[in-house]
Amino acid sequence: MEFENLEFMSRAAEAELFKIQYMDIPCVLKRRKKKSYRNPQLDQSLNQKRTQTESNVLATALLNDINVPTVRLVDYASFSIVMDYIDGKPLKEHVDSPTVKELFLELGKQVGNLHNLDIVHGDLTTSNVIIKKGEVFLIDFGLAKFSSSLEDKGVDLLVLYRTLLSTHSHIVDTAWSALLDGYTQTSKLNRKEILKRLETIEKRKRYSGH
Amino acid sequence: MIHTLFILHWEGNMIMNGTIISIGLESSADKCGVGIITSEGEILANERSTYKPPIGEGVIPRDAAEHHGDQFPKLIAKALQKAKLEPSEIDLVSFTQGSGMGPCLRMDAIAARTLSVILDKPIVGVNHQVAHVEIGRLLGEMDDPVVLYVSGGNSQVIALSENRYRVFGETLDIPLGNCLDVFGREMMLDASKAPMGKVVEDYARLSDEYVELPYVVKGMDLSFSGLLTATTRTAKSGKYSIETMCNSLQETAFAMVTEVAERALAHLGKDEVLVTGGVAANSRLKEMLNDMASEHSSRFFGLPAPTAIDNGVMIAWTGILMHQNGYRQRIEDTAVRQQFRPEEVELIWR
C-alpha cells in the first residue's frame, strides 16, 4: 500500500514512523522494515505476526476505553499500521510538573486496565506515555502481547520502574507509589501480590547476587 | 603494610615511564589460558588448554578446576618461552577475578598470587566481561562499540553508558553457546575433533531449508531454553534432516541476538558493533551482524577465535589499563567473585 505526502518522523530499530493525513485525520504510519540479515521466511513471519499482534492489541485496548491511538488501517503486505497521531508531549518531559503525581496515578490506572484485558505493553517507558491536554495516552505497542501471566505483568511494571530509577531518580519514590496506587485501584491484582512478584523477578536476574 | 604499599607505589612510578609487560591468567570456565602482552598492545604469547568432558557430558566445575591446576604451570612456562622472556621481565600479574565458576576461578587466582609473590610484582584482579570488551576495542581499533558477547557461559549485549560497561540485554535462561552445545549433545553429534559450535555450523551450511522455531526476544532480553527444547524435539521426530535443524536453529538464535544488538545500537546511537566470545567464531553470525551494522552505517568487527574465546591476553591487557591508571590491589583483596558484574568496575582508563 502506497501513501502520499509522507513526513518522516523517526526511525527505531524495528520500524519507521511517518506523519500522514489519512481521511483528513492527522495520523502516524508505522512501517516495519525488512531485515536483510534475517532468513527471509523468518523475517516475513516475524514482521507479519508483530504487525498483527500490535493492531489487535490496539483495537482491543481501544474498545475497552483505554487511551491508545485509534487504528485506522492495517496492511499486512507492507507491515503497516495507520493510527491517530496523539498530539502531546511524552511523560518524560512532564516529570518536573506540579501534576506529576496525578499523571502517574492516572498512568497506573490505565496500565491496571490494560493488564485486566490480559495485555502487556512490553516497553513501558516515560517516552511511550503521551500527555495530551492533561490526559494520559499509551503509545508504541510494538512489543505488546496478550498474556495472562502475572510474570509478564510484573516485568511490564518493572521496566517502568527501571526507567524511573535510571532516568528520573529524583522523583522515583513519588512516581512509583502514585503509579502503584492507580494500578491497584483498577487492577484485579492486589498490591501485595504484585510487589511480591516484582521482588522475585529481580532476585532471579542472572548474576544479580548481592 | 606501609612498607609494601611504598614499594608498590614506587615500582608503579618506575614502570609508568616505559613499556610494561603483563602476564594474564584466565580460567573462569572450561578453558585455562595464559597470555602475555606489552603496554603497546603487542601480543607476545597466547596459550590455552581446554578441559574436555567425556562425549555426551557437560563441564563439571570441580573437574575443570583440577585440569586448570594441572595446566597452569605448563602453560606459564610455555608462554614465557614463546615470548622469549625471563620470568623476571614480567612487570605485572593479571588474573580473572570474576565472574565465572568458583572452583575454576580459584585456580587462576592461586596461580596469580603465587606468581606475584615469587616474582615480587604487583597483582591485578580483572573483570572477565570488561576484559572481553577491552581486547576487542584494542584489536578492532574501536572506540565505543556495542558489544555482543556470546559464549557457552554468557550471552550479553554490553555497551558504555554513564561511565560504565552496562549490560543492556542478556539471556534470561541459558546462554547461546550452551544452547548450540546441548542441542549437539542431544543429537549425539561428534565434537571430538572440533568444538560443538563448529560441528553445528558445518551441518547448517549444508541446508537452505528453514523450519520455524520459537523466536523469543523480550524487550532487550533473550531466552533460548524454549528454542532448545523445540529444536531438539523437532529434530528427534525425524521429519527434517539434521542439516535443516542445525540451519534453522542458527538462523533463529542468531537473528535473536542480532536484533537485540541492533536495538542497543539504535537506542544508544553508537556506530560500532563488536562480537566476541566462543560463538563469535561462527561465520553465519558474523555475516548477520555485518549486514545489520551496514544497515545502520556502522562498522563491524568480529574478533578472531584466539582472542574471542576466553584467553589470558585479554586479562593481561585489561590489567595493564587498570595498573597504568593507578589501580592497586593487595593480595588480601584478591578473593574471587563468582558474580562479578561489569557495571561494578570503575573505568578509570576511559
How would you describe this structure to a colleague?
Chain A is of the alpha+beta class. Chain A has five helices and ten strands. Helix content of chain B is 45%, strand content 19%. Chain B has a five-stranded mixed β-sheet with strand order 3-2-1-4-5, with helices on both faces. A five-stranded mixed β-sheet of chain B has the order 8-7-6-11-12, sandwiched between helices. A two-stranded antiparallel sheet of chain B has the order 9-10. In chain B, strand 7 and strand 8 (164-170) form a beta hairpin. In chain B, helix 5 runs parallel beside helix 7 (225-237), helix 6 crosses helix 8 (242-268) and helix 7 runs antiparallel to helix 8. The longest helix of chain B has 27 residues, at 242-268. The interface between A and B is medium-sized, with 23 and 28 residues.
Cross-sheet strand order for the largest sheet of chain B: 3-2-1-4-5
Total count of strands of chain B: 12
Sheet/helix structural class of chain B: alpha/beta
User: What is the CATH homology-level superfamily of the largest domain in chain A?
Assistant: Transferase(Phosphotransferase) domain 1
Backbone shape of chain B:
globular
CATH class of the largest domain in chain B: Alpha Beta
Taken as a percent bin, the fraction of beta residues of chain B is 15-25%
Strand order of the main beta sheet of chain A, please? 1-2-3-5-4
CATH homologous superfamily title of the largest domain in chain B? ATPase, nucleotide binding domain
**In DSSP terms, counting alpha (H) and pi (I) runs of 4 or more, how many helices of chain A?**
5
Largest sheet of chain A: 5 strands, antiparallel
Total count of helical runs of at least 4 residues of chain B? 11
**CATH-defined topology of the largest domain in chain B:** Nucleotidyltransferase, domain 5
What top-tier CATH class of the largest domain in chain A fits best? Mainly Alpha
Total domains of chain B: 2
Helix/strand order of chain A, N-terminal first: EEEHEEEHEEEEHHH
The helix/strand class of chain A is: alpha+beta
Q: What is the succession of H and E elements of chain B?
A: HEEEHEHEHEEEHHEEHHEHEHH
